[in-house]
Design goal:
By secondary structure, this protein is an alpha/beta fold. It folds into 2 domains: about 5-50 and about 215-374, Rossmann fold; about 60-195, OB fold (Dihydrolipoamide Acetyltransferase, E2P), CATH 2.40.50. It has 11 helices and 17 strands. The chain has helices at about 5, 20-35, 90-110, 145-150, 155-160, 215-230, 245-250, 265-275, 290-295, 315-325, 335-345, and strands at about 45, 60-65, 70-75, 80-85, 120-130, 135-140, 165-170, 185, 195, 200-205, 235-240, 255-260, 280-285, 300-305, 325-330, 350-355, 365-374. Strands 1-16-17-15-14-11-12-13 form an 8-stranded mixed β-sheet, sandwiched between helices. It has a 7-stranded mixed β-sheet with strand order 4-3-2-5-6-7-8. Strands 9-10 form a two-stranded antiparallel sheet. The protein is globular. The relative contact order is 0.13.
């Protein structure tokens, strides 16, 4: 993959872009094997590859510049906007939407937020593309004032971007280094984007997490389902379940499946997906995954965990170690914390692992590991 932004030194986020793709994947596999070298009997399946470019279904673009000439991309070290609207790792539909969004910023008079001066309104634009080409567009703003301007000019945006099915304004009044705030104002008729993943339709609401690489996410869920069907648990938990990807793919008649997620928006998305699919032995709960496990009256046969980069933590690892659950599927976006957590669960032996290259051109990976109690 070639990138003019990288060659010009404008953006260096794709740290592995100078390496041929096979070498990128080979280095990631070697690194993961090193981190899990304490498990010599672990069987590594062939890695799942990704398209090298155009794989990101979601772009979080910082807005800079001026109303007349906004930038969509990142900030330079001085806090000024750097335009990256032709970024090669973004999905084609996302890239195609960015010029129209820049024009809309000008039309609606949305003043980009000036980070050094702490002035302005529009901080970020977040665009997500579904496999069928539908879009979710979110404007992250400081106050209600630009919300009115976005709403007033919404017909023009929908005319320019007819695939924008979900449009929202997210309120982030504080000056801090986060992408979005807690309050979401839905401006479109629809508030849910349908993300087709294999045979499952996942409903994505504005503040819900979904894997940024749809192709590899589908392979991840299919691999998890194959392993779960093989071990055939009667009860299954999906902790840190997000919009329910693992639970919805692994659910089966007679298999009591429970998903737990802290985001209420994600739980609502998962519940809608389960209802649409007619799944009856499946429930989703909003709450802390660790607290749920520590206070549960019964232990499931198998547990899926898909934690953030920090891993599952000492408490949950300790509970899993002592729980008696026969199997754990651990989906990790950080093999360093995966290795740490495995050391805290010596009774659960890793028997299979598979690297899924969710983030080409970068050092980041996803690793799915099947653990079996000794």
């Amino acid at each position: 993959m070639r990138c003019d932004y990288y060659d010009a030194g404008t953006c260096r986020s794709c740290t592995l872009i100078e390496l041929p793709y096979p070498r990128q994947v080979g280095g990631k596999v070697e690194r993961c094997r090193e981190l899990l070298a304490g498990h010599p009997d672990l069987q590594w399946l062939p890695p799942v590859l990704s398209p090298e470019a155009g794989y990101r279904n979601k772009a979080k673009m910082v807005v800079g510049g001026t109303v007349a000439e906004p930038t969509l991309g990142i900030l330079d070290p001085a806090g000024h906007g750097v335009d990256l609207r032709r970024c090669g790792v973004c999905a084609p539909g996302v890239r195609a939407a960015l010029p129209a969004l820049a024009a809309f910023i000008t039309r609606a008079g949305l003043v980009p937020y000036d980070v050094p001066a702490r002035r302005g309104e529009l901080k970020n634009v977040i665009v997500t593309e579904a496999p069928d080409g539908a879009l979710m567009v979110r404007f992250v703003v400081r106050s209600q004032a630009p919300v009115h301007a976005i709403r007033k000019n919404l017909p023009a945006l929908l005319e320019a971007l007819p695939r924008a099915e979900v449009v929202t304004a997210n309120l982030l009044p504080e000056h801090k280094a986060v992408v979005e705030g807690d309050t979401e104002v839905v401006l479109s008729d629809r508030r849910t984007l349908t993300m087709r993943s294999g045979a499952v339709d996942l409903n994505l609401r504005p503040q819900s997490f979904f894997q940024t690489n749809t192709t590899v996410a589908t392979a991840l869920y299919e691999q998890a389902r194959a392993w779960v069907d093989e071990i055939a648990p009667g009860t299954l938990w999906d902790l840190f379940c997000g919009v329910g990807g693992f639970a919805l793919h692994c659910a089966a008649p007679g298999r009591r499946t429970t998903g737990v997620e802290s985001s209420a928006e994600a739980v609502e998305s998962a519940r809608r997906s389960a209802a649409d699919a007619g799944l009856v032995d499946l429930e989703f709960l909003a709450g802390d995954a660790t607290a749920f496990a520590l206070t549960a009256a019964q232990v499931p046969d198998a547990v899926v965990v898909n934690p953030p980069r920090r891993g599952i933590g000492v408490e949950l690892a300790g509970w899993l170690e002592a729980s008696g659950a026969r199997h754990v599927l651990y989906s990790s976006c950080n093999p360093v914390t995966l290795a740490q957590d495995l050391r805290a669960m010596p009774s659960l032996r890793p028997v299979r692992a598979r690297l899924l290259d969710m983030f080409p051109q970068t050092h980041h990976v996803e690793v799915l590991t099947l653990l079996e109690r000794r």
